[in-house]
């Protein structure tokens, strides 16, 4: 086994428990595709990776983002940064008020959505799946993967899911909204609101994305180790647009 793979497989749990292997900022540098990269982002507390502060100004106008948004399925192969991943997660479900309200509205402020990200080529983040923790603007690792493997390989044949540097998983715990079809509709509606936020943020960052509903939802859930009552609704691969 290559040394890089060995590190990827065995370093993650110890990093997440703040072991002495972590550097001063909770980082270990490995070489991936010839580039030095932090194995893990800064650790915010036990088992969480804090995301860089979000930008709340700059970028392009809402109107320009709306006019420019298009489903993008081909990517250059360039990595995303941890800041870009954090910005996209914040756009989808970030907390924007002291009483916990978020970027997207929620019926009866029940917040049934759970967002995960599959990192396939993100500078500062080891490959694997992570749950977004809105209240801490942090990530919690769900599972690790080797740089060459694709966690979602068995979940869809659609190439954009495997070629994107990051894939966002939009899931929900439907029970949080309450029982019945109407509550389920509202939850799905919220998934759409959060998804559009993420899509527009991608445009603002000069990135491309596509809502991909054609996935085996159960396989996605199992692959990313969402082990609660989450149900996967769609995935959204994001990358640098090719062409
Ligand atoms: C719920 C939903 C599911 C979708 N699923 C897929 C998909 O599985 N694969 C895909 O390539 N595009 C998918 N799309 C993207 C649509 O094909 C795309 O939005 C449509 O062609 C319009 O193009 P535009 O997004 O560039 O405006 C999906 C869009 C939505 C809203």
Description:
With 243 residues, the protein is of the alpha+beta class. It has one domain (51-239): NADH Oxidase, CATH 3.40.109. Helices cover 29% and strands 23% of the residues. The protein has helices spanning 3-16, 62-68, 82-93, 159-163, 181-204, 217-224; strands spanning 29-32, 35-38, 43-45, 48-50, 80-81, 113-119, 122-123, 128-133, 138-144, 166-172, 208-209, 231-239. An 8-stranded antiparallel sheet has the order 3-4-9-8-6-10-12-11, sandwiched between helices. Strands 1-2 form a two-stranded antiparallel ribbon. A two-stranded parallel ribbon has the order 5-7. It binds flavin mononucleotide (FMN). Flavin mononucleotide (FMN) binds next to loops. Residues 70-71, 73, 158, 210-214, 234 line the site of flavin mononucleotide.
Give a quick rundown of the structure.
This protein has 243 residues and is α+β, with helices and mostly antiparallel strands. Helices cover 29% and strands 23% of the residues.
The structural domain count equals 1
* Unreliable parts: 1-32, 34-45
State the share of residues found in helices, binned by percent.
25-40%
Name of the CATH superfamily: NADH Oxidase
